[in-house]
Specification:
This protein is α/β, with parallel strands linked by helices. It is built from 14 helices and eight strands. The protein has an eight-stranded mixed beta sheet, with helices on both faces. Helix 11 links the parallel strand 7 and strand 8. The radius of gyration is 19 Å and the shape is globular. Bound molecules: adenosine-5'-diphosphate (ADP) and magnesium ion (MG). This is ParA family protein.
């Protein structure tokens, strides 16, 4: 019997304060026995009515997720950070694939690699040793503009501001800057009018770079691996978000909590999802990303799963997440 995951005290981590869109019909806590709550959604679309009451993997009724509305003009980007100080939870994978799925829906997307490990850049096929300019230059050198740094991602409609290990120096150097927390916000400002969505892939820490990302953002998405102890440390992340909200960026909202690497065949995985919903309520996305090796394969191939394995369940999951993000965030 694995250890039970500690459940945070009520109020400590309610996580619903920043969410703009609630689904009124949904319970905030599970009201079903576990087995019933995690019963797989029937695949057959017998009628629209039965589809509406089907329970999703999070144990709540699965809402109908329409395709995002077509856009006739671009700009006014929503900036969203992928944030969790734990590594290996799916931040980079979500940045690449949510971005690619939103681009498929006609959004102009800019990805920002804000992790000195540069996994986002490598995951899109770039060589870290062959970058002329990176986000580091954009932050530290006033002569460098976004146009000097931006590169195509290989996905139509999606661009990338790449990074490599140079960015680790910025964390130290920024400490001496005036308005050090607002540096990324300042340099990204010209991109807002050109893109519909800007996704920032944060590093696994709550240091100055992550505070910069949160200060520059309208929303934050928190990927959480569906594993025991996944919730550990999330209270600290919530505190950091609250502090940034209070002191630097009152507009910052939690756009959602995303369960990743989910294995629906195990009771373990289902229990973790259940607890996620108990802790974060309707902040938890109905969409859950299942565990599949296709994600590692697509990273090796240097492209998103939406193009590497376009009809795979992983690609479909990120398309569904894109619809859910667009539904929650009308400015996407
Ligand atoms: N849903 C998933 N199923 C299986 N492997 C995954 C999944 N999501 C991510 N991975 C793999 O897990 C590793 C860590 O993911 P990554 O997105 O880099 O996490 P982070 O950016 O939070 O450190 C990578 O090798 C990635 O390919
Ligand atoms: Mg990463």
């Amino acid at each position: 019997m694995p250890p039970r995951m500690p459940i945070p005290a009520p109020g400590e981590m309610s996580g619903d304060g920043g969410v703009r869109r609630q689904f009124a019909s949904e319970p905030t806590t599970l009201q079903f026995p576990v087995e019933q709550a995690v019963a797989p959604r029937p695949a057959a679309k017998s009628s629209a009515a039965s589809a509406e009451v089907a329970l999703g993997p999070t144990g709540r009724p699965m809402p109908v997720l329409p395709d995002p509305r077509p856009l006739t003009e671009h700009g006014g980007a929503r900036v969203i950070s992928m944030c969790n100080q734990k590594g290996g939870v799916g931040k980079t994978t979500t940045t690449i694939n949510l971005g690619a799925a939103l681009a498929e829906f006609g959004r102009k997307v800019l990805l920002v690699d804000f992790d000195p490990q540069g996994s986002l850049s490598v995951g899109l096929g770039l060589n870290p040793h062959e970058m002329d300019s990176t986000v580091y230059n954009l932050l530290m050198d006033r002569q460098t503009t976004i146009d000097d740094v931006v590169v195509p991602s290989g996905v139509p409609g999606m661009d990338l501001l790449p990074s490599n290990i140079d960015l680790s120096a910025a964390e130290v150097q920024l400490v001496h800057e005036v308005a050090r927390e607002q540096t990324l916000q300042r340099v990204l400002a010209p991109a807002i009018e050109r893109y519909d969505v800007i996704l920032i892939d944060c590093q696994p820490s709550l240091g100055l770079l992550t505070v910069n990302a949160l200060t520059a953002s309208d929303g934050v998405i928190i990927p959480l691996e569906c594993e025991y102890f996944a919730l550990r440390g999330v209270a600290l992340l919530k505190q950091t978000i609250d502090k940034v909200q209070e002191r630097l960026n009152p507009n910052l909202e939690v756009d959602g909590v995303l369960g990743t690497m989910y294995d629906g065949r195990t009771l373990h995985g289902r229990e973790v999802l259940e607890r996620l919903v108990q802790a974060w309520g309707d902040s938890v996305f109905h969409t859950v990303i299942r565990r599949t090796v296709k994600f590692s394969d697509s990273t090796v191939a240097g492209e998103p799963i939406t193009s590497y394995a376009s009809s795979s369940s992983g690609a479909e999951a990120y398309r569904q997440l894109a619809k859910e993000v667009a539904l929650r965030c009308p400015d996407v």
